[in-house]
Amino acid sequence: MPDELEIHGACDARFAPVREAFAANFRTQDEVGAAVAVSLDGELVLDLWAGHTDTARTQPWRRDTLVNVYSTTKGVTALAAHRLVDEGKLDLDAPVAKYWPEFAQAGKGALPVRWLLSHRAGLPAVRKLLPNESLYDWDAMAAALAAETPWWTPDSAHGYHAVTFGWLVGEVVRRIAGKSLGAYVRDVFAKPLGLDFHIGLAEPEHARVAHILQPAVPDTTGEGAQLFMRALAEPEGVTSRAFMNPPSMSLGPNVPAWRSAEIPGANGHGTARALATLYGRVALGDGSVISGEGIARCRTEQSRGDDLVLGVPTRFGLGFMLRQDSHTGGCCLGAGAFGHPGAGGSLAFADPEARLGFGYVMNRMGPRILLDDRAIALVEALNGCLGRKT
Predict the structure, then answer these.
(1) Given 39, 71, 118, 346, which residue is catalytic?
(2) Per-chain mean pLDDT for the chain
(3) Which of 102, 119, 246, 361 could form a disulfide with 130 if both were Cys (CB 3.0 to 4.6 A apart)?
(4) This prediction's pTM
């Protein structure tokens, strides 16, 4: 860690080991810019940021720096659906076509909403190669998925809906709420709770966004490399199409079109503070985000075992990743915790037993599919502060 690097923010003395783990990530894990926050009993007890937003390390990470959190966005999207369930407006066991009639195409008329949230719908990708501009066109993606035939018999297996999750769940929310998923999150969660989190970022806010950086040394043997090779082996297979269709996905997140669009499976922009605050309210089950009944619903296991898209075992509740079955997959999380990691390293979760919300964001991509070593170090330090063994 460079001598001039400073850690900014506040940390309750009880959580000093998390601060040290955060600092250690800069010293030993090639952290470039990052932030971490913890909410306990509805109050921020840790809110730290450090480093830089650019490769040259000339632009400091600030309190209000935003960063793309990839699939950590999925948890926020899922919360929107669960809020509608709490309000009696969405039945997870009703057919998707009840809310989105066009979805009944290709034999999907009876497919329930529940399977969208649990990655069991068989719709992780569109087979036909789509135009680049489709990635940023909500109606085009919704129409393509409504017309798509499932890649496997729905509910017979599960496979990570890496990007399509957002359009599938988001279109159900849009049909019920009468507004886009991004607008719903803004109006129901972000504004009332004062959260600096956005799905579809207004152009004037782009200047606050940290540049996403690839690893200094490309991974050639780890989980990320294995996933790439899996996709490369079958260019028209489910894994390749899930991550590379539309092909403009390869352009990455550092372009204005990505930041401005609503891609609620992958392009949320926010702060660690916003994520910790949101999940901190979730953990309380006080209705400000979801109810106590909603907590039980979110973390009820729906899928477990071999993932047909990722090629590794995964475990999901209703829209959320749960404690996984391997250390690198996230067994450091509390047994009742639920949330979502994002590609490259970000992580946010609620731990209702501890009445805690956690958020970690960064701009230097790591190679893991599930939890990154930096996030694991922070969570393990947090567990120590709570008197829990990993």
Answers:
(1) 71
(2) 94
(3) 246
(4) 0.96
Q: Are 36 and 377 in contact, with CB atoms under 8 Å apart? A: no
What kind and span of H or E run contains 229? helix 223-233
Name the DSSP letter for residue 231.
H
Within 8 A by CB and 6+ apart from 76, the residues are: 185, 189, 197, 199, 264, 268, 278
Return the H-helix or E-strand segment holding 166. helix 164-177
pLDDT single digits (tens) 333-351: 889 999 999 999 999 999 9
Tokens 């006080």 identify what position?
286
Asked whether the predicted pLDDT for residue 1 surpasses 50, the reply is: no
3-state secondary structure of 264: coil
Beta bridge partners of 358: 38, 349
Task: Give the separation between CA 4 and CA 60, rounded to whole angstroms.
Answer: 11
Q: Does a cis peptide bond (omega within 30 degrees of 0) precede residue 256? A: no
Terminal alpha carbon distance of the chain: 26
**pLDDT single digits (tens) 221-251:** 566 677 777 877 888 899 999 999 999 999 9
- Judge whether 180 counts as a catalytic residue: no
Tokens of 367: 């190679």
Q: What are residue 98's phi and psi, to 5 degrees?
A: -60, -35
Instruction: Please return the burial class of 3, using the count of CB atoms within 10 Å of its CB with bins 0-12, 13-18 and 19+.
Output: exposed
For residues 10 and 43, the answer to whether their CB atoms sit within 8 Å is: no
- 10 Å CB burial of residue 244 (0-12, 13-18, 19+) is middle
Q: Using CB atoms within 10 A of its CB, is residue 60 exposed (0-12), middle (13-18) or buried (19+)?
A: middle
Q: Which domains does the chain have, with CATH numbers?
A: 1-390 (3.40.710.10)
**Residue the block writes with tokens 């948890």:** 75
pLDDT tens figures, 145-201: 999 999 999 999 999 999 999 999 999 999 999 999 999 999 999 999 999 999 999
